[in-house]
Amino acid sequence: ESVRAASLPPIAFPDRVPATLAVSGEEWTLARNPDAKDFSRVFFFLEDASGALLYSWRVPESRDLKTAGTVTQLKSLARNAVRVRCYAENGTGTAGVLLSPVQME
Known about the structure:
3-stranded antiparallel β-sheet; 1 helix; 41% strand; 105 residues; 5-stranded antiparallel β-sheet
């Protein structure tokens, strides 16, 4: 066993959330924050009614600030999913922002 000092590099988090996710009817919309700095990788975590993770899906990167799709697409990835949670992480995968879940029904 060795004891020594450890240091972590500071992470520059954006002032506002890196992305927002909304579900309206059969459509979902992801709006990326243009000031999110390095937090460009976005994932959707599909959850069941108890909050258990069923499936994670990386949203394809895009130069567009908005990405949209259908709830049917998400449910095809995880049949029992009732909620979707958005997670954005920095390019090195060392920090992330997990948003509150959004109901898909």
